[in-house]
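I am writing to request your help with a piece of structural work I have in hand. Here, with my thanks, is the record as I have it:
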Amino acid sequence: MDNSQPAVTQEPVPGSSSALRISRARGMSYRVPAEVTTRGAKYNFVVELTAHRPDGSTVVGLGEGQPRGWRTGDAPQSSWNYLTELTRRLEGLELPLQDLAGSLQAVRDLTADFSTLAEELSLDPEHVRPFRGTLLGVEVALLDLLSRAHGLPLAQLLGQRREEVIGVPETLRLGDSTRWRPEAGAEADGRYRRINLRPEAADTGVMAFVGLMNTVERRIAADQRQHKLWIDFDRSLEPAEAEEFVRLVVAAAAEGTLPGTILIEEPVRASEGLHLAQLQRLVDAEIPEDSQLDVRIMGDESVWDEASLERLDADGGLRAINIRPAQVGGLLAAVDLAEEALRRHPDTEIFLSRMVGGSRLTAGSLRHLALALPRIDEARVIAVVENALPLTDVEYLSVAGERAADEPGAAEGLDAAEERSVADGALRESEDTDDDDDGEQTPSSAPAAVSAASAESAESDSDDDEDSEDLEEPGFRQFGHPDAAGLGVVLTLNSMVGEIENMVSYPAQPVVQYEGLSPTIYDDVDNLHPLGPNGSKGHLLEREALALGLNTIRYSKGAFTATDGEHPPIPFKWSRNPLSSAVSLALCTHKEGTRLQLQRSGVPVPQGRTFTNGDFTTAKAFAQRIGYPVVVKPAMGVRGIGVVAGIQDDEQLDAAFELMSGSKLGNQDFIVEKHVSGRDYRIVVIGDRVVAAILREPASVFGDGKRTVAELMIDKNVARRRNPHLWARPAKYDAAARYELHRAGLTLESVPEPGRRVQLANTCSLSQGGDSVDVLDEMHPSIIEACVKTVRSIPGLEYCGVDFLLEDHTRPLDEQDAGICELNAHAAIGNCEYPMYGTPRPVARTLMRAVVDHYGLRTADEPAAEITVKVQVRGKVTGVGYRRWLRRRALHTGVSGWVRNVDDKTMETVLSGPTAATTALVASLILGPKRALPTTYAAEHLPHQSFAGFEIRDAQGTAGTEASTGATEDEDD
C-alpha cells in the first residue's frame, strides 16, 4: 500500500455552534457471546453520550471499551468503577465546536486528565497502564459525538490520509488442515500479501520450526513462494528458543524454502518483551550480505506507548509493530504511537488490530483510525459480536440526513435488512455450504484493497488473542463505508434488554420500583460474582459456619463439611443439611405421598389424585368431574419439571399430557389436581418457626411516562444484577414477553403511563425474571400456623420451603381460596436471603445455628465481623497462575494475607478481612483461575491478625519476587 499520501485538508465547518453540551452520559457493560470468542468470558463497555447544541438539536456519540485484563490494565469491578466516575464527570461538560483542531484538542485534554485519574484509582500496582481498555470507549464516544456534530465521518476528524486499507489474511494453525483454503493463496496476490501461520505451544524452537516447515510444505504451492509469511507465536517461546527458531527461519529463507519476506510476531511473552529488539539484531546479523531477505520481528503486547518504544530502541528497536487501541488507550494514542515509531525508524511497518470480541462500534472506530494513521500496512478489525448478538446497526443515510442517490439500495428496491447488509459492506458471491473434508469453497473476485475506511477482513482467525469467527467461512468480501457522520454505527438498544450486565447514567435514572418499593441494596454482590450464578447456594451455609468459628473442608461448589475439632464433621450440600431425615426428604419428592399426608393433617391442599403412567383417559374423566382449570404434574419431581398449570379444557389437557410426557420426568405416574387461583409464595420453615416468606411475582415493569418498555426492562435487569441471587437471572425479551406485550397492545418502544404495570411473563419463576418480595411481617398468623403444621406433618422434616398459593397473604386462611402445592425439602436459601424487594432474612444463619445446637458443636456465641483463616488447596493449583489470580482477587475484595506453593499439588494461603468478603474468597478457591483444577480445600481458623496488602511468598514462606515484579501474565506462575 502507498503510505505517502498527504493528509486530507480539513476546514472549519461553516455555521458550527460554539459549544456542545453533554446532557446525558451513560455506560453499559455486556458479555461478549461465548460463540464468538475462544477463551473465557469477556465483557465490553458501551459508552453513550447525548449532547445538545445551543439551538437545541441533539447529537449522540457512541464508543466501545474493551477491558481485557492485564493486556489493557483492566480488572472487572475496578474498571466499572472507573467508567462510573468518568460518566459522572462527563455529564454537563461542554466541548468546543469552532473548528476541528479545537475539538480534537479538547478530547486530547480530557483523555490526559482521565489517564491521570486512572492511575489514582487503580488498586493493582501490577497494572502499569490502568484502565486503557475502558478509556478507549470513552474517547471514541467523545470523538464520535464531535464528528457527528461537525457532520463529518470520524476519519476526517482524525485527519484522514488515505481512502483504502489492506485487510489481514486468515490465521492458519500448524496441523490444522480444515481451515486452509487453497484458493485463498491463489487469489491473494495483491490483496492478501501474507500467509498468517500460528504455531501451537511448542517445547523448543527446533520443534516450532519443524512444524512450520511441515505446514508450509503442505499448504503453500511453489508459485506462492513470493508471498510474505506472517508467523504469530502468541508469546509461546522462551528467549533462547526464539533465538534458535529465528536462526533456522533465516537460513531456510536464504535457501529459498521459505518466502524471502517474513514477519514474526511477539514470539516471547510480554514480560520478556525487551528481548524482541535483541531478536531483530540477531535476525539482521544472520541475513547474508547482499541478500534481499526482509525478516522482521513484530512487537505486539510489548509496545503500548512512547516509553516502551524507547526501551526497545535502547537495544536497536523494531521495524514492525501491531497497534491495539484498547492496549494503547485510544485512537489518538494509537496515532501518536505510530508517528513516534516512524520518527524513530521511518521504515517501520504499522499493523492495526482490535482485541478479542469487538462489535461494529470497535470495528467502525478502527476502520476510521486506519484511514488516519501516518502509515498502515494491514489491519484486522472485523466485528464479530453481531454474528450472535444484534448490538448495533449500520447507518446508511448520508451526512446530510437523506439517502444519497447512489447509496446502495436507493434505486434497487432492497428491503431494510438488505439495505443494512449492503451498507455494512458485505458483497459475497456465494454462501459456503460444502461440508467436505477439503473445505473448498468458490471465492469471489475481490479487489486488491478494502475500500473507504473498511479494513475488515472476512477471513477466519482463531488466535487466542482474537476472535473465533467460524460463524462465517473464510472468503473474499469488499466492504463499503456508509456515507454517514461519526462512526456510521447506531445502537439497537432493544436487542440488549436481557444482555446488559450493568448500567450507569448521569443524570441518574429513577429507581425501578415494585408497588412503591425500591430494590434492596446488597453490599456483597461483587464478592459473590466469582462463585457463578448459583454461587450463593453453596456458599451461604459455609459463610455462617466460618463466622461462628468452625473449620471447613470443601469438595465441590456445593459440598462441604464443618467441624469444631471435637465432634465428627457435619456434611452439607447446597441447602441440604443433616437435620432432616432421609425418609422425610424422599416423601417430599413424592408429590402424591405429600398430598395425602397433608390432606390427613387438615391443611389446605388442592383436590386431586394420582394416575398410572399413560392412563390419560381416566385422568381426563377425573378432570372433567372436578372441573377446570386443573394442573398436571409428575408424581415425583423437582424444580417444576413437567408441571403444567392453568389448563382450561380437554384440548389444553391433551397438550399438557404431551408436554409432561416429553419432560425428563415424564415416564412415571402423574397427578391431576384442581388449579388454585392465587399468588405464588415460598414460605421457609425451620423446626417450628417460619423464618422467611417471599411473594414470587411474574416478570414485570412499571411505567413512569418517560422510559420505553425496553429501557424499563434494562433498568430492571441492571437492578437485578446487583442482587446476589438474581444477578444471572434477568427478565428476558422472549416469546412469552412478546406475547404478553402483544396482549397488552404494547411494544418495546411503547412508553407506559406512570404506574401502569406491564407484565412480561406468565410464570412466577425467578429464573425467568420473576420478582421476589419479602412479606414475612405482613403474613397472617393463620397462614404461618398452617405452614408450621404442614412441616410437622412430615416426620423428621426440620427444614422446608412451603409453596403456598394464596389470594392475599394478609387475610385469614379460611376467608380465601388457598392451597399448598408443593413442599421443597431442599429449598434454595438465596431467594429469601436476597429478596429483590423488602427485608432480607438470615435463613442460612438460622439454619446453621439450628445445626450447631442440635449436634452440640462448640462455637462462638455470635458470628465474627472479621476472621483470619489458613486454607490449603489441593489439586492442579501450581503452574496455572493460581497465586497471581488469588492476589488480584484479594486486592479487589479488600482481603489481606499471603499465598505460597507448598508442593506441586498444594497451595497454602492465609486470608484476613471482613467475614463476608473473606469467606466468599475462600469459597472461590475451589474454582481458581481458568487453568486450575482444585479438588479440595481445608479452611482452618487462626487468631485474627492484619497484613499489609497481599504477598506472594516462596515455598519457605518469605516474600518472593513475584509480589513486586509487576509481571501480569497468568502463565508466568
